[in-house]
Amino acid sequence: MVLAEPLERSHQQYRVKVEQYRDFRRDGFLHVPALVPRAEVAALAQLTEDMMAGRQRIPGLPVPPPSLSVAERRHFYDRIHMPHRTCEIAERFMLHPRVVDVLEALIGPDVLALQTMLFFKQPGQAGQGFHQDSYYIPTQPDTLIGAWIAIDEADEDNGCLWMTPGSQHEPIYPDCDGVTQQGDTVLSDIASIKSASHPDVERNTLAQIALQYPRELAVPAQPGDVIFFGGHVFHRSHSNDSARPRRAFVSHYCNARSRVAWDHGGSRAQYEDAEANAMQNGLHILARGTTHLPYAQPKFGTLCAANAPELYGERLDDNRVKSMMGDEFGFMVLVPHEDVAHEH
Prior knowledge:
The chain is α+β, with helices and mostly antiparallel strands. It has helices spanning 18-27, 38-52, 70-74, 88-94, 97-107, 133-136, 206-210, 268-272, 309-312; strands at 29-32, 79-81, 111-119, 128-131, 139-140, 145-150, 161-163, 217-219, 226-230, 235-237, 248-255, 259-260, 285-288, 322-326, 332-336. Helices cover 19% and strands 19% of the residues. The longest helix has 15 residues, at 38-52.
């Protein structure tokens, strides 16, 4: 009998420091330089080049007509939603083990991968105004987190991310213009806002709240840098006013033990239906750890907890409760609780 070779990690594990964990909780975001190798990020850049040139197609998306000029082809796409469901490389980056290593420390150890977006943001393309991601992707309990991978160098000229430190403590403001029913409504005095994500601060009334904070930080990034940010933090980006692209690959995740009623692409009537608001967890991929809730398998076989539990999955090896804690060297690690009788 031939025994199968044991699975091994494809990348060296990234160990999150306690200081980084504190920074994320204090500011609402964490910038991790060079988390993804540049050579891998170059493959994402090539994908966008091939798409704009019409050499590669993602199923379900139009291809730039041959009659378009080079300049028109470069502006044919703005952003693409959920490419991981039809494109192998997108699934691979959503489940990138070093990205999930950080997520495991920040919201884990159990992580569910929900959503992907590929941003092209060529010269002249618009930015996105102040918004909160949990407004668009609700999870219960709310554990949403985004991971923004820089494909190009991002700076203030070509439209890098801007974050508002401290705003992660804000509730999710409901929109009163009928765009969505999401937002906190239990708080008795919460104000409704209008036009979340609109770049005009006069039309996007969430800006009136965001701009009360004493500072807003630009977050420049190099290719392979990853910016993690919580679902409540106010953030935005400006238009690309340079001659350079500012492409990015963005994924969203939550703790795999949160209920998720969201699935991108469903009709609004279906989304608001009481039955449709039941869990949609079974449509999303278990990236790390384990869960008592349903989950999906990766379509293209990228290794993760869903299909390689012996490598990335079950952590309750001796039925002892474990939590992410700091060790004596200042790193976040999975630590068993010593005395079950003293669990709180």
